[in-house]
């Protein structure tokens, strides 16, 4: 959910948002209430769309003139058609599902604009069943992966950005048909590091009222690491996850790295 919408939510302390389904995908009710407007959104050809499953690591400063940079968590089948019709460039960022799950669980806990996640065990099962807002992680990453050869979509991985930020930023520059000198690249790497963004009020969501995002429960910029899932998954959960993953991801060429 965009920062602006979250700020406008009028939730009382300890109150949680309701959810409902849009075409089979769970969504917070403010999204459902404005669905026609979202679906009919008119993209401009020079819009850049950043797309991710929630908690894949695309938080960034948002105040920008045209060309606009827009962000979505929608699965490809719910993307307003205008983006593809107008040929907008899209950057999709995917994160390994185990860290994504852990991050999303903590985000649910601190964010009243999402339903209460219940216990870790309950949330684990809901995530596997895709009974979470924006739907199944597996369908999300596969849907966008399958679309990437038909449309101008640059598909990136959180783990690659952590490991080789300069290389990944260069990929983005090439995709955007832009040139940046080394100095500018180094500045981007510096300002987009986890430690800098954690301190940056434009990126760390501390401007959101405490009734909505309670950073004392879990900070928005939590750990920003690869492999944190190992502190949460039990051996049995890990086995169950891998088994389920094999079935759901069968036949795809998409691969993930869950530790560096
Ligand atoms: P963790 O909860 O694992 O720390 P999003 O930005 O899509 O909401 O995703 C948030 C997740 O990405 C959080 O993960 C957050 O810490 C991580 N993240 C955001 N910016 C990051 C950065 N610059 N470097 C590393 N991780 C980052």
Keywords:
single chain; 260 residues; Rossmann fold; four-stranded parallel sheet; two-stranded antiparallel ribbon; 11% strand; disordered N terminus; binds adenosine-3'-5'-diphosphate
User: Element order, helices and strands?
Assistant: HEEHHEEHEHHHEHHHHH
What is the CATH topology assignment?
Rossmann fold
- What's the pLDDT, averaged over the residues? 93
Structural class: alpha/beta
Query: Which small compounds were modeled alongside the protein?
Result: adenosine-3'-5'-diphosphate
- C-alpha Rg (nearest Å): 18 Å
CATH architecture descriptor text: 3-Layer(aba) Sandwich
What is the domain tally? 1
Stretches where pLDDT falls below 50 for ≥5 residues?
1-7
Count, helices: 12
Strand order of the largest sheet: 4-3-5-6
**Number of extended strands:** 6
**How much helicity do the residues have?**
25-40%
The CATH class designation is: Alpha Beta
What is the terminal-to-terminal distance? 29 Å
Shape: globular
CATH level 4 superfamily: P-loop containing nucleotide triphosphate hydrolases
């Amino acid at each position: 959910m965009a920062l602006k919408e979250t700020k406008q939510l009028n939730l009382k302390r300890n109150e949680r948002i309701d959810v409902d389904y849009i075409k089979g995908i769970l969504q917070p009710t403010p999204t459902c209430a404005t669905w026609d407007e979202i679906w009919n959104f008119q993209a401009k050809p020079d819009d850049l769309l950043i797309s991710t499953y929630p908690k894949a690591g695309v938080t960034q400063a948002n105040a920008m003139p045209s060309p606009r940079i827009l962000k979505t968590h929608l699965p490809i089948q719910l993307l307003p058609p205008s983006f593809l019709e107008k040929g907008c460039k899209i950057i999709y960022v995917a994160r390994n599902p185990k860290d994504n799950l852990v991050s999303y669980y903590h985000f649910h806990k601190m964010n009243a604009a999402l339903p209460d996640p219940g216990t870790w065990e309950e949330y684990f099962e809901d995530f596997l069943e895709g009974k979470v807002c924006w739907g199944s992680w597996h369908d999300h990453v596969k849907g966008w992966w399958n679309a990437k050869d038909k449309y101008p979509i640059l598909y990136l991985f959180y783990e690659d950005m952590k490991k080789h930020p300069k290389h990944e930023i260069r990929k983005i520059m090439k995709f955007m048909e832009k040139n940046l000198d080394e100095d500018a690249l180094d500045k981007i790497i510096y300002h987009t590091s986890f430690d800098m963004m954690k301190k940056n009020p434009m990126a760390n969501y501390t401007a959101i009222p405490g009734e909505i995002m309670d950073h004392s429960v879990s900070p928005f910029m939590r750990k920003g690491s690869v492999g944190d899932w190992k502190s949460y998954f039990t051996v049995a959960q890990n086995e169950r996850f891998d088994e389920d993953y094999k079935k759901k991801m069968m036949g795809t060429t998409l691969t993930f790295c869950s530790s560096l």
